[in-house]
Amino acid sequence: MSTKKLFDILPKQGVAKIVGDPYVLIKDLHLDSREVVGGGAFFARKGWVTDGHRFTDKAIEGGAIAIFTEYDIPQTHLSGVTYVYYQNANRFLGELAHRFFGLPSNRIKLIGVTGTNGKSSTVTLLYHMFMTLGVKAGLLSTIENRIGDYVLPSKYTTPDAISLNRLLSQMVNEGCEYVFMEVSSHAIDQGRIAGLNFTGGVFTNITHDHLDYHPTFREYLEVKKSFFDDLPEEAFALSNVDDKNGKVMLQNTRARKFYYGLHTFCDYKSRILENTIDGLLLEINSQQVHCNLSGAFNASNLSAVYGVGHLSGFKEEDILLNMSMLRGVEGRFDKVMDTDKGMIGIVDYAHTPDALEKVLDTIREVLTPGRRVIAVIGCGGDRDKAKRPLMTKIALEYADWVVITSDNPRSENPDSILDDMVVGLSFEDLGKLIRITDRKEAIHTACALALPKDIVLVAGKGHEKYQEINGVKHPFDDKEILREYLTSG
Known about the structure:
Layout: E1 4-5, H1 6-9, E2 15-19, E3 25-26, E4 28-30, E5 40-43, H2 56-61, E6 66-69, E7 82-86, H3 89-100, E8 109-114, H4 119-132, E9 137-140, E10 145-147, E11 150-152, H5 161-173, E12 178-182, H6 185-189, E13 200-203, H7 217-229, E14 236-240, E15 256-261, E16 268-276, E17 279-284, E18 287-291, H8 296-311, H9 316-323, E19 334-338, E20 343-348, H10 353-366, E21 373-377, H11 388-398, E22 401-404, H12 414-421, H13 427-430, E23 433-435, H14 439-449, E24 455-459, E25 466-469, E26 472-475, H15 478-486
Parallel strand pairs: 4-5, 5-6, 6-7, 8-12, 8-13, 9-12, 13-14, 14-15, 15-16, 20-24, 21-22, 21-24, 22-23
Antiparallel strand pairs: 1-3, 2-7, 9-10, 10-11, 16-17, 17-18, 19-20, 25-26
């Protein structure tokens, strides 16, 4: 990576003062003082847990030649180090990183997908479809990041601004034409996508979630909406018209507006002709296609995929052909089947009331008549407590047996979380509920209850390969444990 003059990468707005050489050559940007090397610049900011300004001395010891600070530059600053006093930390960092890495989103077609549920599935399906269409693509998702066929681990829904722009720059250098990216409300609110140039944006839906971060649902909605408000007029904005806020999202966008849905007349209208455990037969804009995914929520995601393909200039027949070859996304209605015994298990990331209701409703649609649904659910610790009893009530409404258990308790007592999950339940509800704190034992119990053609749902963690307890991530894979117990004996 080539060096950049400090002055050349500074955003046009937000610089309050510069002390030192404004043309010093910067080799890299860092948020972690421990990673700073000679010629690097350290971006200090006040975070949720700690204040990065405490580590400026350590960054300078590591070789930092420039310090970005939210606080006015002290009189005792070191000579030989350039200090930049900036304002609006989140937006400033996003634009700074974008400029440092050579404006990568201007050299690629970047499409962002936002919403409460369906982001990972939609971006992953888009990535695979474009790759099979012969277009080299990049993927930025909760599950994994990809540059063409190369897979990188993923830690967050949307990486920090420096990591994000570094990845986009790599994708440009590796010849990617498109990048499909999950855009979380946290990322929008914290400015991680500031400065990026999006070719298109997709809205999936918005439901009760992240109210541990956003104080009100209204704010959560407004943050999501701001993504579309900021799209340029040459971009497209594609929204789910079946969601009651689908049109609200695009009210103030300058981008070209389009809608998709299952129940309302729109630009990309789909109709479910068949829905089985083996897949969907869809009619999209009067054309039929069989897809290897089940459920109305997947029909909605596939409608969005079709829309993006069409808006990107691909022929209808090519889109439909490649849609028919798409496979399910890891941890999203992810099936474990023993055909000899007729045993069926499903792992799903559903961790919100709406997502859980959708996956259970889908299971009911594809369930063999007379068979049962056994659901294993939990709720994460240090997160929105209001949804805990809602999750249990939804599970009890759709499932024949419900096993409540630990999810990622984080710093909370797992049993306290389960106490919250059973608040307000009737005696009748408690009669078909089993409480087992240990998640592995809970999955084992659900499998032991299952008879041939019953469906065991393990919800909440999906693709995750760990369980977080008291700040430690322990290896844990729902799918592997489900497969072990469901197919044993």
